[in-house]
Amino acid sequence: MSKMINKFIVDYHVHSHFSSDSSASILDIAKVAVEKGISEIAITDHFEPINLKNLYKDYNPSILLLEIEEARERYKDKLIILHGVEYGQPHHFPEISKHILQSHDFDYILGSTHKNKDFLDVNKFDYVSGDIQTIVKHYFSEIKDMAVDNNFDCIGHLDLIRRYGAVKKVVISLENYIEDIVDIFDIIIKNGKGIEVNTSGLRQKMNSSMPDLDIVKLYHARGGKIITIGSDAHVASQVGSDIDAGLFMIKKAGFKTITTFQKREPHFITI
Ligand SMILES: [Zn+2]
Ligand SMILES: [Zn+2]
Fold first, then answer.
1. Is residue 107 a contact partner of residue 83, using CB atoms and an 8 Å limit?
2. Which of 31, 138, 183, 206 has its CA 20 to 30 A from that of 53?
């Protein structure tokens, strides 16, 4: 495995077997991260509550933390491992947000909108025969609701809808939705929150990060400062994938720093 050249590589979006769509152990993820010369990772397993009952059916943050602590011990001095979470649709569940954020000591909360209010997944939207403009407008209004609700540190894959459009061979161009995106940016910037650059799209059909250069530039122009980067790895070998390309793009968009978190406090690292 080749070592990366950048002196500071982080991956702030990694799934382990505590997510139903991954079977990677945290120890394996940490091992690969160290081999690739990554200095910091955030384990961000899915937490997708449906109701207040069976809250931790698949996702159990207390057991997960034990596994993180084991990996921290094994790779101490080599790798920082954060206890993060990818919290799906936090704005749908204010009571659950209150509960989980008070009872667990997270380092980093990624707020992602994977589903609309009818629990329909973004990958199930009718991209082929539906009205794309209505679908995309509705998608961004959900993200705006999540931004207003403000129970996260960074917004995950802001334009995930492009990824699923691409799967159905529908190219979704964001130029018609700039006002909606600016609204979201203004809210999170005012609240001291940020966005992530998710590099998983670079290994998928859409062939770009989420968001891509134009939108990251727009975020910078609006005064955005908090920006993280993550591969959205679901297997250990994907940890750190295309992070160097993503960092290059973030710099090109005008950023001089990338953001890391500790106990939900942002820190800025020169890139
Ligand atoms: Zn996600
Ligand atoms: Zn994810």
1. yes
2. 138
